Amino acid sequence: MRTLLFLLRKEFKQIFRNKALLPLIFFAPVMQLIILPLAADFEVKNINISYVDHDHSTLSQQLFHKLISSGYFRAVGYGSSYSQALQQIEEEKADIILEIPAGFERNLVRENQQELFIAINAINGVKAGLGGAYVGQIINDFNQEVRLKWTSGAANIQTQQIEVTSTYWFNPHLNYQIFMVPAILVILVTMICAYMCALNIVKEKEVGTIEQINVTPIKKYQFILGKLIPFWLIGIFIFTVGLFGIARFIYGIVPIGNILLLYAFLAIYLIALLGMGLLISTTANTQQQAMSVAFFFIMIFMLMSGLFTSIDSMPDWAKVIAYCSPVTYFIDVMRMLVLKGSGLMDIRWHFVIMFIFAIVLNTWALVKYKKTS
């Protein structure tokens, strides 16, 4: 125990003496957690629409104003030339063209039907799909309003319709920041702890102090614990500042679930994550190698952990990779505990899987580290 305390004192001194490292550990995650959720918004707004009106009637103008007043569209053209509108799409000035044919109002009144033409720039598939859906929904609403107006004015005909009312649980206002902040906090803690821990032993190799440690009577598990515990405590500190500081006072996110349960899972997750960092550190010979390997895994963890895209929508081979990542389970647990208030029975298998990650990665790192006396 005394030997371990000396090692911990040495590690903390090395960390706090490095003036360039301290801002990366403590200041960078705070700024990133403040800025990133403001940009991580899945809702597509400010879609540029070019409105081609060959009819210039009252109804065509009402439809145009309904589109613009929805808040999703921004008019970049209003004219009667389709070729000019198409040129705006080619120049990336417009995303959607809505063409109103001549006789739009007359045909709608006399024949009760009229076709419209919509052209969408589909280079950005997400923006194109959502933009087209928005336009279709607004046109359907406009068509329903016109029909109700005509039927109520013509006769006492009661139009029966089904009204759908949606109730959004756990995020009633569909605020994407509430959905993204817990997941981004997981990624930031992962990046800081994995990178710093991966560079730890490699730095000892590069400066030559690893040979001095190897000839001492320090046991392998003491050396590994001395490298793991400081960053385990730093990870808990960063997580606490992010959850109870930034998430609460800037974004108004208050955890609903059991805090002790959340920290219990965090403790096991950090052990597994730091075990991976130590494994990379014992394998690499230079800091550049360690950074490259850590960057490779962090990118996979970020893109295939359910942070930006749902795992359920991935192909089967991608789901296998996603469920081999500890980050996937922690993001899921964060959203379940912080937003839904889930209990231990809901995340019991997450605990089991994270225990397996922690045992396998740390045992592997312990075996991989070769100490010569």
TrEMBL record:
Its membrane topology is listed as: Multi-pass membrane protein
Q: Where in the cell is it found?
A: Cell membrane
Q: The ABC transmembrane type-2 domain covers which part of the protein?
A: 146-372
Q: Which domain of life is it from?
A: Bacteria
The protein's matches in PROSITE patterns, at most eight in alphabetical order, are given as: ABC_TM2
One function term, GO molecular function aspect: ABC-type transporter activity
Chief subcellular site? membrane
Keyword annotations of the record? Cell membrane, Membrane, Transmembrane, Transmembrane helix, Transport
Q: Provide the transmembrane region boundaries.
A: 21-40, 178-202, 229-254, 260-280, 292-311, 349-367
Under the cellular component aspect of Gene Ontology, which terms does the record hold?
Answer: plasma membrane
Family that this chain belongs to: Belongs to the ABC-2 integral membrane protein family.
Which protein, by its recorded name, is this? ABC transporter permease subunit
